Amino acid sequence: MVGRVAGKRPRVGIVDVAQRAGVSVGTVSKVLNGRGQLRTETRDRVRTAAQELGFVPSAVAASLHSGRTYTVGLIMTDHHGRFSLPILHGAEDALGWDETLAFVCDTRDDPIREQHYVRSLARRRVDGIIVAGRRTEPRPPLSGAPPVPVVYAFARSADPADRSVVVDEEGGAALAVQHLLRTGRRRIAHVTGPNGHASVRARVDGTARALREAGLEMVGEPWYGGWSEVWGRFAAAILVREHPDVDAVFCGSDAIGRGVADGLRDSGRRVPEDIALVGVDNWLPTAEGCRPPLTSVDLNLQQVGRTAGALLLEAIQCGATEPGIQTVPCRLVVRASSGPAGH
Fold this sequence. Notes:
Layout: H1 14-21, H2 25-32, H3 40-53, H4 59-66, E1 71-76, H5 84-96, E2 101-106, H6 111-123, E3 128-132, E4 150-153, E5 163-167, H7 169-182, E6 188-191, H8 198-213, H9 229-242, E7 248-251, H10 254-266, E8 276-280, H11 284-287, E9 295-298, H12 301-318, E10 324-328, E11 331-333
Parallel strand pairs: 1-2, 1-3, 3-4, 4-5, 5-10, 6-7, 7-8, 8-9
Antiparallel strand pairs: 9-11
């Protein structure tokens, strides 16, 4: 006779729950799987018994019953995690409601590595896949993907038949400009990243639209450059020399904004008393490390992930993915850099 391991509780099974609740094993199965026409009183009694006994349903049994593995793949292309980690956290929030786990695959923007992960996920029979990009340019659809739902997050799929969740970057730029206008600024410049980048185009368009709606024009042309503090410092020095009446700068990223703040300070301009600043990304190490702390447009990437996760679960449950693009709005996080003008 094999003795019980000291201090270790025996595993509670569905038979134990049935005995505690005074019902059949079949009734317990129906309650746990949400099936059958049962009285509310019976369902409550079974659930109470399961909770009192500490019963944990078997994932294997659930998989056999539903035909699902309760796993999904999350393919990331941003190995630094700056954009993909918030998306991952949001997706996990949504997937957790369904007790679904994610296999996280970092492709490091390498198509060969991506194909390797797609094949690995297919072998593991995942229920679906989320593809999280680090740039907003449309990307090719997954090649060789298994016949499961796929949702693209942040970087939309180039195929209109796919489902994508993107950020309203143009609307985010308009938020920034409208905020600066409310603080009394009227001479607003825009210092941003590389010309031709999809995010840059969207932010330039949003800036120009918000100014046009207010009956104003941008100070000079958009200032195109790199996504760096070095570019921000350089641009600020030239900007105040060519346009000494500028009273606000909307920057295409927080890194640019921090560089602009340093450049303005080196030029003898005060932030925000003389010139207000707003950046994009709400990347805390940069935004809060800026002097003064930088007002920033948050791209709401966690909500992008939550939306992508919810759409994927919906597609898994109904067996098909609805085509189209869903847009998530940005939000503005106000800090000291855009305070009232001084005298």
